[in-house]
């Protein structure tokens, strides 16, 4: 995923940064840190959730994936849930 897409989604969701600042209490310079993605050549890649779950099962007895919401790109940011570490022998 090109990080420029993250900025584009942010700007779609929050077109008025002054309003975002007023609603959240975040300072405009803090909100502006997202601008580092503008024209960035960086691309993020994500391992398939199934591969991460399989790796985690080597160390945890109960592994799952939970959704983090319905916002744009939420499917790219699931929550890895780890319970019951396996005992080391």
Strand content: 15-25%
Distance between the termini: 40 Å
Order of helices and strands: HHHHEE
Shape: elongated
Structural class: alpha+beta
Average pLDDT metric: 91
- Order of neighbouring strands in the sheet with most strands: 1-2
Helical percentage: 25-40%
How many beta-strand elements? 2
| Computed CA radius of gyration, to the nearest angstrom | 18 Å
- The biggest beta sheet, please? 2 strands, antiparallel
**Are there runs of 5+ residues with pLDDT below 50, and where?**
none
By DSSP (H or I, 4+ residues per run), the number of helices equals: 4
Report on this structure.
The chain is of the alpha+beta class and 89 residues long. The chain has helices at residues 3-13, 17-24, 28-31, 49-56, and strands at residues 60-66, 79-85. The longest helix is centred in the N-terminal third of the chain and has 11 residues, at 3-13. The N and C termini lie far apart (40 Å). The mean pLDDT is 91.
Summarize the structure.
This protein is α+β, with helices and mostly antiparallel strands and 89 residues long. 35% of the residues lie in helices and 16% in strands.
Question: How are the elements arranged and paired?
Answer:
Elements: H1 3-13, H2 17-24, H3 28-31, H4 49-56, E1 60-66, E2 79-85
Antiparallel strand pairs: 1-2
Please tag this protein with its features.
4 helices; 89 residues; alpha+beta
């Amino acid at each position: 995923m090109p990080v420029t897409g993250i900025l584009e989604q942010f700007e779609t969701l929050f077109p008025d940064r002054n309003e975002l600042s007023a609603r959240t209490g975040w300072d405009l310079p803090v909100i502006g840190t997202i601008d580092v993605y503008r024209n960035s050549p960086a691309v993020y890649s994500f391992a398939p959730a199934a591969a991460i779950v399989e790796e985690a099962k080597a160390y945890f007895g109960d592994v799952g994936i939970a959704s983090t919401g319905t916002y744009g790109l939420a499917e790219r940011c699931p929550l890895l849930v780890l319970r019951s570490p396996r005992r080391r022998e």
